[in-house]
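Dear all,

This email documents one entry for the complex benchmark we are building for the journal club exercise. For each entry we list the sequence lines for every component of the assembly. Then comes the predicted three-dimensional structure of the complex as a token string, followed by one or two observations. Please use this as the template for your own entries, and keep the labels exactly as they appear.
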Amino acid sequence: MMLRFFVWRLASAVPVVAIIAVIAFGLLHLTPGDPARIVLGENATAENLAAVRTAMGLDLPLPVQFGHWLWGILHGDLGVSMISRAPVSRLIGQRIGPTVALALCAMTVTIAVALPLGVLAAWKRGALVDRAVLALSVLGFSVPVFVLGYVLIGTFAVDLRWFAAQGYRSPADGLVPFLRHMTLPAITLASTYVALIARMTRASMVEVLDEDYIRTARAKGLAEPRVLFRHALRNAAVPIITVVGSGFAMMVSGVVITESVFNIPGIGRLVVDSVLSRDYALIQALILLTGVLYVVINLLIDLAYALTDPRIRYQ
Amino acid sequence: MTPTTTSLLRIRDLRLATLGPARKELLHGIDLDIRPRETLCLVGESGSGKSLTSLAVMGLLPPRELAVTGGEIRLDGEDLLAASPRRLRALRATRMAMIFQEPMTALNPLMRVGDQLDEVFAVHTTLDRRERRRRVIAALEDVHLPDPEKLALRFPHQLSGGQRQRIMIAMALALEPKLLIADEPTTALDVTTQAQILKLIEELQERHGTAVLFITHDMGVVADIADRVLVLRHGSPVEEGETRRVVGAPTADYTRELLAAVPTLDPRPARAPSSATPVLAVEGLCKTFGGGAHAVKALHDVGFALRPGRTLGVVGESGSGKSTLARCVMGLETVSSGVVRIDGTDVRQLDKAARRRHATRLQMVFQDPNRSLDPRRTVLQSVVEGALNFGVDKRTAAEKAAALIETVGLPRASLDRYPHQFSGGQRQRIAIARALMMDPEVIVADEAVSALDVSVQAQVLDLLMSLQAKFGLAILFITHDLRVAARLCDDVLVMRRGVAVESGPAERVLTRPADDYTRRLLDAAPGRSLDQAARLRAAEASIPAAPPGP
């Protein structure tokens, strides 16, 4: 049952990815800007420009260019950067590690903080704790990432020297250096999402806590933690999973500012650089990557729904 | 009052109020005693405080909203109001347990029912996993569920309402509590299922020696199962006593009213059969949902004819196809085969525009008046909407709405208010006014009084009958309640699994049923003894009062 559900969802993702590929390609070739001119500079001659365009394959009809690109992708070849002439897959490969590490850490922080806060607020609905959580989440949501980032750096890296102020260390270099570099950026990035997910958890839990089966659970003599986490939270999970999932996708594509503040060599900065230099091959690959990431995350969300709710599984 | 020394549950002067600035007392001093093995019925209409009383006993009142402000609750001598939360949790399921009205929502939808049962043992006993498993299966067997090993692995949505209520009962009685509180446990169930569940509770009560506090609004159920009755109204006790005495010779006016409001199973006096052309006729109606192996035959070859000024009752249990029939007649569902004639015209022969005009001749009143009116629109907006859609100008529509709202017994000023400002019965009157706005020839009422208290139910039924006389309406009345059908209907159509098993004049079908299923339905209807009591009271009333004895 579960396998059929998964295969079906996987199959229905294929056309979505195909559409993303068309859009990634189409959008870019419709926007103004000429990579040849950027490579050659302002004073390039018409002949030189034409020669470079031919070399880059930009003089071919668009459908043919698209065909080449797609053929390459299907064979695992994302193309070559038009500017640095390095393979796109290598460029992305170098940068994806820090970004994924940052997003995962930030999400872990988010869930670890937001879920208990949301559950607590819903349980003590209307009480002081509830209002405090609300105030805290508004604060977290409204302080800009760069402000919080520099405040954290100033306090915990410069003054207290507990953490590194800048840069990135791979987990392969050891857990302690990794965490020394990752903790502050993760907290910074998480601040926005904590607010979002805590609010969502609270709303969803408030609704579930009014359900008859919660009363049944209490009538059975269960202690409150068991009622809250075993009975209520799982029933409240579906909307929370949705927000966590799309939050994660947003994180991976929206880390630009955090990466800049903490000087982390990740995807965010690669995106900015490639757009500024009109590096078509690289931009296309990055758009495609982001699109596929969203699709994969949506697939995982669906899978998580089915795992939490048997009624979805048996439909 | 019974001697307190033998009371298992003893409540004295229980008072309860809402918290917050607008403090309002909801229970004004309830006294109650239940002896071991006894069944006490707590009766009353909505808002009488019967559920609040039971939640107060269990310590399950919503915190920060309601609180006990005075009085005493003792279970086996132990003061529950003074008990710590921890102590209360330990008492729940072990000494006192509760089952609820809505079995569809009372179980956690994401947990296998066996695991939900297992929790009771896991929390309150030190049994190991294997022993708990054995007890779970035993508990499921105890409530006569088939194939308990397999059933334990099911999720609630895979079980019927009756099966879920059995699970709830198994859960409540798993640790043999001394007190079982049952809050309207059969109200959401079909009559035949209700009869089975009531029998089950009685059987388990005898076997385990449990005392039962049974909360219900249904005087029929009271007459069938209670040893003693306590009648509540607006948070105050009205009358208390042995069931036979309270039902047979009530002393309080309110109890008398409650009893009188229960429709009897004796059909209304027959009216002369009409020979007018049927305003609504259905022939060979079939409706199949889905296709292939999953096809569900919701209706199979159903036919009837409804004449002006007459009421046809469609009765049957849930899943019998009653509502599908109504929806097909209304054109809300396309029929698979068969003919629906309105005023002799086959609806399917009409083009779209003509069908739309035709549709106004049938108007529907739905079951739940809390949800069938748009909460963000005034009563006026809801009532006139249909007429405006058919081109009536605003002023004429508003005048007509004002006249109709008075016809259904509400003040004109109601039109400017919103649905939440009305009670359930009033909202149902609004829904009826909305239906009448289109000058229909037929009113299709789908369980239109099922969500109402008996006294309100009686008023709405009276209203329907007077409107029928006034406008010559034909009524297609869908109900699961044979008493309501007996009170209102000229003819009755009994449905079972999409088939009309029997039809004919109410007088015959409800007194001399030809079909076995009809007979079973009638037998399952609670409170047969009530009808005898009612007949007796009626007989006494018709004899001139005897001079007082010496």
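Observations: The radius of gyration of chain A is 24 Å. Chain A has 15 helices and no strands.
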